[in-house]
Design a protein that fits this description.
The protein is mainly α. The protein has one domain. About 70% of the residues lie in helices and about 0% in strands. Helix 1 runs antiparallel to helix 3.
Amino acid sequence: MTHLGPQKGGLVLGSLVGGWHLLWAIIVAVGWGQPLIDFIFWMHFLKPVFVVEPFAGGRAVVLIVVTSAI
């Protein structure tokens, strides 16, 4: 059995979180962000209060880079 060190664990976690946000950026880019958020809140018996803004490529890059780095 191989040992998973903190560096490798951090890289894996950063990749997963960055990948999750990449997926979110793609969802927003194709116009599915607001319907998805509305559906998620609806099935949790919550009234949506958030509005998904139009896709901005620069902001998406910042989102992905910052969440991956953290």
